[in-house]
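Escalated from tier 1: biotin holo job.
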Amino acid sequence: MANDILKLLREKEYVSGEVLAKKLDISRVAVWKQIQKLKGIGYKITSDQNLGYCLISRPDLLLPQEIQRGLSTTYIGKKIFYFSELASTNIIAKEKALHIEERIAEGTLIITERQSAGKGRLGREWFSPAGGIWLSIILYPQLSPSYISRITLMTAVAVVKAIKVCTQIESQIKWPNDVLINEKKVCGILTEMSTELDMINWVVMGIGINANIDIRDFPKDIQKNTTSLKETSGKEISRVELLQTFLQEFEKYYEKLKRKRFPSILKEWKLYSHTLGRKIRVDMGEKIITGEAVDINEEGVLILKKEDSELIKIISGTILQ
Ligand code: BTN
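Tier 2 regenerated the structure:
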């Protein structure tokens, strides 16, 4: 109901309580109650005795109704679970994906304003205060488990594209999926999935974008390697617009991936690559390997040329420099 009122308030500068009540077939008291509810969420609505209600501004929150308004995707973001605070969107997304009896729709999003226990790759913590974009996307790709690792690279391309479209800022991808601006991390991607023999039960893509966060608010130990879009552009960006653009890009690339058109995505990944052509050190868990990053192959695997010219394939690891 509150959404219907918002819709009507957006159509005209002023709408009277009487008109709202008539159009929605509710009492004027019910209209008033809904208006109070919207004000409680952060919508600024004034009322004039003669003219009625007027929507002045919307809150700077990633509310489902704001994201879905004007979102041109077919299925990504059609259903959104929104929370003002959560431990981790990936945890909730996984719980929902596990519900086989009540299978949640593909493309459902879990979004929160802040996470109290955000998860990073390799069991690390992910600092997630208010002002960022913290979300998870639930997917059921009909691809083989061995093909799906490409989805992380694909998601990074969608993030870079969205940042460029919305803020004109150029960002780069550090293999496999860190998005950097001026060598500092602005976005991280955490892919979690459940597979069985040769099929995927579900995939949860967790995406964290440091949007409107002041750099001094980050923990001291990550400040030097971290940045935010606000920090880079010198002003707050529209999180709703960035998220909408990202979701549109994501759906476009995900459709390509499902049709196994990864090579065309890889071409773009290479254009945005921060890694290729650099001398790097890769932490592979049991050892650290040094060499030049010469290519990423069609499987999304990093090809490293060691000092003795031997080429080695790196399926997973962390680049140290
Ligand atoms: C990384 O280590 O680079 C991955 C970070 C992923 C963070 C995002 S924020 C939304 C989602 N929920 C989480 O708990 N983690 C991911």
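The longest helix spans residues 239-258.
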